[in-house]
Each structure stands twice: as structure tokens, then as C-alpha cells.
């Protein structure tokens, strides 16, 4: 009997010492607080959140919302009690969302339920895309997401409803490198009706304006090297800038930038409107059908061609203004009037054919590389958060570079044709004749004249575009995580 008396109390003691689910959760939260509290002062500020959650790709606006939601005493930081209370409240919201998604109440979310969730808020995706989303959360390889996986994935992401989750899953970023715009994003009917889309496009247009202005000197150097060729415009980057500064002073580095910025808004508006109309025609009677990637490419290319046709005279004006010498034109209107009087209306569409031909390789490779890199990251990082903004920015920079490499010879020929009448009164060659002339005189390398400054401006253009875009989304009230 004695061994039994000593054994039972010991068993009861072990039972009472076993951590309860709530204790286990509190322990995890305490460890998380300690990880985020980098200076160990007992508080977490916005900078510590930004550093600690950098791998999750949360925007500045999302981090602000975490602090605002948890900061009950309004001191601008989160102490331990505030942090724990925020996580407890957010976990309750996540539980409600999980139950909403789990349609068959089996305690797990599968790809079909993700697809259905997005469909209910007007976002139509294929089962394949829904499976990719699922794989980003599935840590145990069951092809389903249980409550623990769901909670861990979204615990430090300030989403409050299923619509926010839908925006997070369809995240993308509108980046402007000063070249052709990427294939437009897909928006839900609810987003279109609410005005979300136009605020989003406005944020992209402002970001593009700042980005293009910041990289305008490199763009002007590119145009000079494209047009004047190796015989007329020798030297390296430094000598090119010295020539422009000597001829027109510091402000001459931004010649043509006004027109380059001015054409962003109409080009974006026409491209988006045309894209929506073309998608509608491709879907036919099945209005909810999700377009496959090659259909998106075709629709995006046609929309790009439509937008380019509408704004092409502005492209010609941009090239002429970029190349102008001091006092040559009184301004945009003066340039347009002079071209019209001396060369006629057809001058505003010089280089149109090579420009249209360049859309297909640029858009096709840009989209294909972007999607391939993004999904390669997802497949390599299963169970990790969706691609953060830096991953998407990197994918955008690489895909834009590849697109430019493929389409650059056509872009060079277009620019030469646009500028022909303003360069030494030279002969007005056709596209094929110009191609033959460049290859004969300068070799194949001549088709890539000016590509160095063009490639150099991609990283600063993408970086500036993203930062401005993020701030504009916050200002315009569209800073929903993943809503690009």
C-alpha cells in the first residue's frame, strides 16, 4: 500500500504541472515579445516591429495598425500586457475567419474552400492557384490547413475579415520602371464599385511620376545614346552627362520628363479600361471564369497596344523634347506645333510599328518571369508567409530586366525613327532599312546602344516606385495588405 500512496500523489502532481493549452500559448507569446523587444526595455516600438517582422513582408501601414490596435494607453509603443491582449483579440478574429472558411466543419481548410472564399468576395482564381495559396500555409504536408497553421500564419498580420484575407492572397505590386507597364492586375467587382481600383491606380500613377522624375537623367542619357549612335555620341557615362550639362545646365538633365510623366495617367486609364473589356469578351457568357496565364498575357498585350496607340503622339513628343537643344522649342505645345507644320500629322506616329512589335516580347517575358519567380519562391518556402514586398519587388525588377533585354532592339529602332527629322536632317529610313543600317555600321551590339543606363535605372526606379506607392496607398485609404 505504501508504494501506491507515494505513486498517486506523484501522478497528480505531474498532471497539475502539465501546461494547459492556454499556458502554452502564453509562453509562446512571451517568447515572441522577447524576440521583438530588441533593446530589452520592456516595450515594442514601430521600428522594432519593422525589423522583427521584416521577413513577413508587412507594409508600413500594417505595422501601424498593429500598434494602433494594441496601444491602449496611447503612448506609441506596446508593453507586454498590451501585446498579449492584442494577440488574444486578434486570435479570436482569426478563429471566426477560420470557421467561416471551413465550410464542412472538419477542422481543416482545403484548396476548394479557399477558392470558394475568394469567389464570394468577387475574386475568381483557379483551383491550381488556390492550391499554391494553401501550400504557403501547409506546414505538415497534408494539403490542408488546420487551425494551428492558420493561426501561426496570420497571427502577426492585422487582417480583420475574410475580404482582407482575399486581398492578402491576391497581393501584387504596381511598379513603374519608366518602360511599358506590366499586364494589369485583376480586381473584384466590389473593388471596382467602391472606388478602390481608381485610388489604387492613382497611387501607382503618382509613384510612377516620382520614380520617372528621379531617374530622368539616366533616361535622357539612354535616348541620346540610342539616337546618336557610336559615331556621333562617343564616350562613357560621365562624358555623356558632361555634354548635357555643358549644353543646357543642370535642368537639361530632365528634358522630356514632363511629357514622360504627363502620359502616365491616360496610358494607365486606357490600359486598365481596355483590359477589362477584352477580358469580358474572352470570358463570353461565363462571366466568372478565371483567365489562364496565357489568356491574361494576350489580354494584357492587346490592352497595352490599345493604350500605346492612344498615347503614342505623346511618346514622339517625349523623344523630341528629350533630344532638344537649348531654345529649340518654346515648350510642349511649341514642339507639337513645329512638328505638325514641318512634318505633318503622320510624324506623330513615326516608329509606331516597332513599338507595337516590342509589346509582345516585353509583356510576355515580363509576366512569365514574374509569375515563375513568385511561384518558385512559394514552392521553395512552403509553410512560410506569402512573398513579402521585397520578394515581389525583386521579382518585378528581374522580370522587367528580362523583358527589356528581349524588346530593346525594337525600342531602339522606334526611338531612332521618332527622332529622324531632328538629327542632322538625315534620311527617313523604314524600320527594316534602319535595322539593316544599324547592324551594318555598328554590328549587333549597335541594337543595344544605351542599354547600360536603362538597366542601371531599374533598381532605383523600382525602389522609389515602391516606397512612394506604399505611402500613397496609406494616404488614399487603400493600404490593405496584399492589395496592389
TrEMBL record:
Membrane topology of this protein: Multi-pass membrane protein
Region Disordered, residue ranges: 1-25
Protein name, UniProt field: Calcium-binding mitochondrial carrier protein SCaMC-3-like
Primary localization: mitochondrion
Molecular function as annotated in GO: calcium ion binding
SMART domains: EFh
One Pfam short name: EF-hand_7
Domain called EF-hand: residue spans: 24-59, 89-124, 125-160
InterPro entries linked to this entry: EF-hand-dom_pair (IPR011992), EF_Hand_1_Ca_BS (IPR018247), EF_hand_dom (IPR002048), MCP (IPR002067), MCP_dom_sf (IPR023395), MCP_transmembrane (IPR018108)
